[in-house]
Every structure is written in C-alpha cells, then in structure tokens.
Specification:
single chain; mainly alpha; Growth Hormone, Chain: A; 3 domains; transport; MFS_trans_sf
C-alpha cells in the first residue's frame, strides 16, 4: 500500500478543500472510535464473560499502541509519500475495525483495537503535518481551528452516541457504524489526496524504535494500570522505572544521531516547549472531566449512560463552534490573550465542579462543563498552532509528532490520575456523600493543575505576528 519515489506536488496548485475533507473525515472516525467504547464496556464484559481488569485493556492497549506509533510517525513521513502513508494508516484502522466488529472472543477484539490504534497513531500527526505544510502561516490558526472542531466534537458526542446505541443495539454496532466511513475515506483519498511531504529517506535506527517503544510504552502503561492496580503496585512502579530509564536513553540518543527518529531539538524553540506544556495541561483538564463526570452522574446520582453523555454535549457543541472562531482570532491577534482567558475559564469552572453534592442538578453540571470546554477551545489549538509556527518547515513533522506524543502521555495521565484520586479520597462509610467527596478532591487537584497552565500562558509571546508585519 505504501508508495515510494514520488515527489511532492506543487503546494500552490493543490485544491485544499477536498484534502481537508479527507483529513477531517479520517480524524473524526479515529477520535470518535477512541471514545465510543467507554459506555459499552459493561455490555462487552457481560457478552464475552470477562472482568473489569481484563476489559480495561481495550482502552489501555489502544492508548499504548497509539502512543508508541506517534513518535515513529515523523520517521515514516520522511520515508514514505503522504498519499501512501495515509492510505496505509486508514487501511490498518479499517482492518482493526472489522476484526473488532466480528470478534468471537476477547483476544480477537483486542487485536482489532491494536490495529485501530496503529492506524490512528500514524494518522493524527500526519494530518497536522499536511495542514501546516499546505496552508500559509497567516491561515494556519483558522485551519487548526477547523481541525480542533473535530478533535472536540468527536469525543464529546461519543459517550451520548454510544450510550444510545448500547441501550438499543448490540455493542458490535459501534464498529459496524465506523467501518463504512473509514472505507469511503480510503476510496476518496486514493483519488484526490496529493503528496505534500518531502521524502528524505532517513536511515532506520532499530535501537531508537526499541527505546521509544519501551520508554513511551512503559510510562503510558504505568499511568493506565495505576487506575486499577494502584500507584504503589509493583507493575506500576516497574513500568515507570523502565519507562523513565529507556525514555532518557532514547532522548539522549536522538540528540546524538544525525538522522533521529524523533527530533528532540524542537525543544530548543522556547515557544514550542511552552505551548507543548500548556497543551498537555489543557488536555489533562479536558480528559479528566470526561472520565470523572459520567462516573459521578451514573454511579452517584443515578443517571443513565445516555443522560450522563448528554451532560457533556453542550460543552462539545460550544467547543466545536468556538474552535474555528478562536482559530480566526488567533490569526488576527495571536495566542497570548486567547490562552490567558481560556485557562482562566478552565480554572474557575474546575473549582466550580469541586463543590458537587448528591443534590447537584443536571443543569449545573452541563453549564459548568460547557464553559470549561469554551476555555479548552480558547487555549488548546491556538497554543499548539503558535508552537508549531515557531518551527522551520523541515521540523514541522517532528514538531507534530512530539506534540501528539506528549499529548497522548497527558491523556493517559488525565485518565488514570483523576480516577485514582477519586477512589483513594472517597470515604465509603459515608455512603454516596463519601463517594462524592472523592470526586470533589479529584477536581480540586485538576484545578491546581489548571493554575499551572494559567501561569504558563503569561510567558507566551506572539512572535509569529510580528514576523508577518515585518514581512
């Protein structure tokens, strides 16, 4: 499937609209797929006769493989053509979706998730790289805003859609629903996608791939397993130690290689480093609420999966609408004030969610979450775009790979940490109120994490705008 020996097409002659449709469709199914399964896990457990510790691997394995693939993507972008790599990624994703849909047992279902994750891990950084290359710097904010719309909308409709489907249809419907969209995207991409990335044919360094896999995989596994096994368990501690040692070795090796798999020198650009850290904090805030709020609403307030999913929907719609708007505002005014206002909103609304009780209304939760997601829309994509704009063209693919890798790590932290805090801070002998206390403590910790992000925003400078004015 992967093509070689093809030169990039002239960027000026490329019709960008159909390419954007192909890329956004691929992103939509990849991200939607990641969030659909949460509500369906109890049904899968019952159907396949497995326990909670086993079924959680459907989520953890996806995150692990996704996180392992992303750092390698910058190497793959240099090795293969845009078109060939995208078609390969979507084919892997489609094969995995089919395997998951027809899986007669857990092993085959897990294999399907691994294939899906391998495809999605290549797709996300590849898409961002293509968009940064085909659009001029003064339009990138708007384009990344459109991309952010998908990133926001897909995971937010996931719980509501999944809740409705598993209440009325078999859980396999979730995969059968995604499969035709993925196949249509492959067919359309085959005819209209152009080669825009430059093939540099970097040499493959096997040791770097092994170190990357053990490093990022170890850390991601540690955070994923901590939620169920506990932070003090042997498997979590060993995972963190192995991950930290091999990741340090990987980074030092990349700095000494002439052709590194992941160009860590992107962190020499201060704005990229700051905005990557800010993106991680924002993503932790977003993922944490998406995990904790449905558990609180279903297990402590007695809402159905569908209703708890609907509580997240206003925030999804608001974030989806605002992402293109904040993209345009970024192109006009830069990232500094957008991120300051956005993180301020996240801090305020996260503290608002740390005073939940057994009497808290659906309206209060939905409203607080909606304004929280407005803050995420104002902060995350403008920060990411501002950081990537600082990089030279030849480092953009490495920048997107680094950015996505660290975001994946923050996603694992944002999933595991709030649940661990919620369960350890809970007071079971006090009944429902004692359980809600654990939820409130997890939001207090999330709020202080957001405060760190707010402090980072004051160090952001809009250098990109001054360059445009000079030019």
């Amino acid at each position: 499937m992967v093509e070689q020996n093809s030169t990039p097409d002239s960027l000026e002659k490329i019709n960008k609209v159909p390419i954007m449709i192909v890329l956004i469709s691929g992103a939509f199914v990849a991200i939607l797929n990641q969030t659909l399964l949460g509500t369906a896990l109890p049904h899968i457990m019952k159907d396949l006769h497995i326990d909670e510790n086993t079924v959680q691997w459907l989520q953890s394995a996806f995150m692990l493989v996704n996180g392992i693939m992303i750092p390698i993507t910058a190497f793959l972008i240099g090795r293969f053509t845009t078109r060939g790599l995208f078609l390969t990624a979507m084919t892997l994703f489609s094969v995995g979706t089919l395997l998951a849909a027809i899986a007669p047992n857990f092993s085959m279902l897990l294999s399907g998730r691994v294939f899906q994750a391998a495809g999605a891990g290549i797709m996300m950084p590849l898409m961002q790289t293509i968009m940064m290359l085909i659009f001029p710097i003064e339009k990138r904010g708007t384009v990344m805003g459109m991309f952010g719309l998908v990133i926001a909308f897909a995971p937010a409709i996931g719980p509501s859609l999944s809740g409705y489907i598993v209440e009325h249809f078999p859980w396999r419907t979730l995969f059968y629903m995604i499969l035709p969209i993925a196949i249509i995207d492959i067919i359309v991409a085959y005819f209209i996608l152009k080669n825009v990335t430059k093939q540099t044919f970097p040499k493959i360094d096997i040791l770097s791939i092994i170190l990357s896999t053990l490093g990022f995989g170890g850390l991601l596994y540690g955070f994923s397993a901590a939620g169920s096994a506990g932070w003090g368990s042997a498997q979590v501690i060993i995972s963190f130690i192995v991950g930290a040692i091999t990741l340090t070795w990987f980074i030092l090796r990349q700095l000494n290689l002439k052709e590194p798999i992941l160009e860590m020198r992107v962190f020499k650009y201060k704005m990229f480093t700051l905005t990557t850290a800010l993106g991680m904090v924002t993503f932790i805030a977003m993922i944490g609420a998406a995990v904790v709020l449905p558990l609180y609403m279903q297990n402590m307030l007695g809402f159905s999966p569908l209703v708890s999913g609907l509580a997240l929907l206003p925030g999804a719609i608001l974030q989806g609408i605002m992402n293109p708007v904040t993209g345009r505002l970024f192109d006009k005014y830069g990232a500094r004030w957008l991120t300051i206002i956005g993180l301020s909103l996240i801090v305020i609304t996260t503290f608002m969610l740390s005073f939940l009780t057994s009497e808290t209304s659906f309206t209060y939760i939905a409203t607080a979450h909606a304004f929280r997601m407005l803050g995420v829309a104002m902060a995350m994509m403008p920060a990411t775009t501002a950081g990537l704009n600082e990089l030279p063209r030849d480092l953009i693919s490495h920048g997107t790979a680094v950015n996505n890798t660290f975001r994946q790590v923050s996603g694992a932290i944002g999933t595991a940490l709030p649940i661990t805090i919620m369960t350890t801070a809970a007071i079971p002998e006090e009944g429902v109120d004692g359980m809600i206390h654990g939820v409130n403590v997890s939001f207090v910790v999330a709020a202080f994490t957001a405060v760190i992000g707010l402090i980072i925003t004051f160090f952001i400078k809009d250098r990109q705008r001054r360059k445009i004015k000079v030019g």
